[in-house]
Fold each of these.
Amino acid sequence: MSDTAIININGEAFEFPIITGSENEKAIDIKKLRGLTGGVTTIDPGYKNTGSCQSAITFLNGEEGVLRYRGYAIEDLAEKADFLEVAYALIFGDLPSKPQLEKFENDIKDNSLLDVDLRKILEAFPKSAHPMGVLASLTSALTAFNPTSVDVSSDEAMYNAIVKIMGKFPVLVAWTMRKNKGLPLNYGDNSLGYVENLLQMMFSKPNETYKINPIIKDALDKLLILHADHEQNCSTSTVRIVGSSHAGLFASLSAGISALWGPLHGGANQAVLEMLDAILQDGGDTAKYMAKAKDKSDPFRLMGFGHRVYKNFDPRAKIIKVAAKEVLDDLGVDDPILEIAKGLEQEALKDPYFVDRKLYPNVDFYSGIIYRAMGIPTEMFTVMFALGRLPGWIAQWKEMRARKEPIGRPRQIYIGENLRAFKNIENR
Ligand code: ACO
């Protein structure tokens, strides 16, 4: 393949370099396109063909179902590492040594208290508020409680901001759930690891000791690891683009949470469970819902199926499917929803509509089943996703600032009215 691309416009040829990534991915570098061609732009709604940056964080090959963070296979990380090690690798580039991990963990614990005034903001929300809206607001409010913006040129200032948000975010997650359930707002126990502490903050009751089930803890660790980054998806691109205006880290993360909320992105885990529940309530007729998903006049989509990038089995879904079975077996849960999920998966994998369009189960097809078995309310599922994605967002924000990327500002092709005469209001 030549290392340049020629674009012909009205008989004039313009040459552009082709850049190659470390996994041999190719991209036409059109940075000079407008300048050279006198303002011709490209159009690519949904950015299906557009690379917004060069990144050294996550590699994913959707055709082959490959996902790696910092070069480590997702299967290895899910099996052998814990969430904080993975967070460290994503944010700082390598898996931590023991002393590095210990320091990271202790620094996070030192930052795991929330200002009592932040609690008042949470208390002012109605119980009916969706936890994602509450989490986005509280994360944004953290900016008000930590007004100094991070000096991105200082490693120390960046590190302090990172351990601060990593420490405070799980408390926000737990409080968001406890508020909706009417449980007292509590703090964690610094003698516990990150994931154990999260479980105890979410589920402990003032009148009994909370016992951590190691199978639940392992499954949650895996879920968080599998959600930790996914290169330039909708919420991550949002975090990068908001940060590209030099907005602060917490404000950018709050925008990422809002982007994740939608059912076509992180909100899919909630939508999957609601869909499975609706099918169950409707008599469990999976064939009826398969037909609805294929009917172009019906807006219904099989939630948890399909992915913008994976045109093969989502490698995360494979791992989660096994974890779901382990958790349900351990807890002795016989959940009819799992049977519906398995039935839909089997039918879809052999149905020409899904096969031809390469629609496979994605990460969220099975995650909700585990969350539900753990006792996490359905509307908290996307919040759990946000907690998992936090290190990825931080890593991507940090990389974007370190690379001194320009402000994100796409172009458009205007298709509105041409210049027209202004009419006074009496004449309209
Ligand atoms: N059910 C039925 N048909 C589907 C589905 C689905 N879940 N997903 C895609 N299709 C069809 C589309 O109708 C389209 O058909 P056509 O070519 O006949 O018009 C074709 O497959 C391609 O779909 P697009 O929407 O163009 O693909 P895109 O890459 O834009 O969308 C997306 C990907 C949003 C994930 C889509 O597959 C979807 O809506 N899935 C359900 C929601 C979901 O599970 N989202 C979670 C994604 S994972 C994550 O964010 C963590």
Note: Residues 152 and 366 are 38 Å apart (CA to CA).
Amino acid sequence: MGVHARFTLFFIRLNQVFMNAFHYKNQELYCEDVAVAELAKEYGTPLWIYSENKFLHEYRELAAAFSECDPVICYSVKANSNLSILKSLNAAGCSFDVVSGGELFRVKKAGADTTRVVFAGVGKTDPEIQDALSQNILMFNVESEAELDAISNVAEQMKTIAPVALRLNPDIDAKTHHKTTTGKKGNKFGMDIERHNALAAKVLADPHLQLRGIHMHLGSPILTTDPYEKAAQKAVDVIAELREKGHDISWINLGGGFGLSYRNKEAPAYSEYAKVIVPYIKQAKCRLALEPGRSIIGNAGVLISEVIFTKREGGKLFIIQDGAMNDLVRPAMYDAFHKLWPVSTKLPVPHDPEAKDIPDCEISDVVGPVCESCDYFAKDRALPELKRGDLLCTFSTGAYGSVMSSNYNSRPRGAEVLIRGNNVQLVRKRENYDDLIAFEIDCLK
Ligand code: LLP
């Protein structure tokens, strides 16, 4: 590792020690220098709060960990596509991974250099392909032979050559949730790795396609490094074979999926992932692209809800709050764990947020008002006493939180604020009832 990279890593580590975006001061939760209770008073609840310093810190740390191979880091827009977040990442030098025309529209609005943007997704439409080609994107991560044909056709009509990477399914078990694993045989993503030669030959024979690289994304989140090592090894082998066959191929894209500590430091550091990936990339003399989403923005965001009622029924204590599955669907959809703690409390956040025997706490279910039994944020969780009007923070909700929200039960989506030091910026307005029906056409008028 060069002196410059070591230096950068040292300062990033130092910064990390001090960089605790969400922290308690005088028994009150703060985001950077701003009291969360003040934000809730000003903007109402449910409220999404993002720390700009935290996600920039994550981006920079990832970039530093992989700096030896000068990667293009394409933030995965699907994790959180708020325009202000994209603009901030873009200004820091980050690029983007998009999966739809809508996401491409967003990154253009954010001022991104589209020549560094990658485009994945199993169902790209002709207009989306056309749009991406006219934006000169870095490459399409192509997921099927039919898609290769479609891209070639559109490129021919546009009298251009489309840059492509073959998204290969390496058949690696990333040991993640069955709903978020992607690199195992039988998932809808990518093409079987055994077919790389035939697919590459098809690209080579097509004057409207140019093979730039290969892409593999294994799933999300991945809490160990060995699936990446296996994937990198397979990628290097495929590249070597394709070069032997005369392909001028230079990119390896290993996707995203880096772990996030939802509980307590369970995710490996970026440097751990880099340790197993970088040597392969250097060996192959390739450029590296990465598509991190969750690890950049996940712990830079929280969701604040207000307790509406509490009740004891069936031998259980229920905390009923105004944040619900329409806001954060992850617990209902993936049985996801999110740490919860009151915004104002004299009790410190427990080291083990899953512990059942925390002093002065009671086992509770935290639920929302939506008419579904799966509308919960936490089950059997030890929490301090909460009463009507108290604020509750759901942590680690920056990724796949607001982007997956809906209007189910005709509930307007909450506001989003971005914090930088003591600066507060409203970056998405709270929806109102008129917004709920804005796109409906009253045919009985
Ligand atoms: N690249 C590709 C091709 C992907 O499919 C994904 C995520 C990423 C990158 C970014 O992965 P990340 O770094 O964020 O782990 N809604 C689920 C997660 C779905 C992930 C979809 N693909 C959740 O809430 O856990």
Note: Residues 229 and 277 are 6 Å apart (CA to CA).
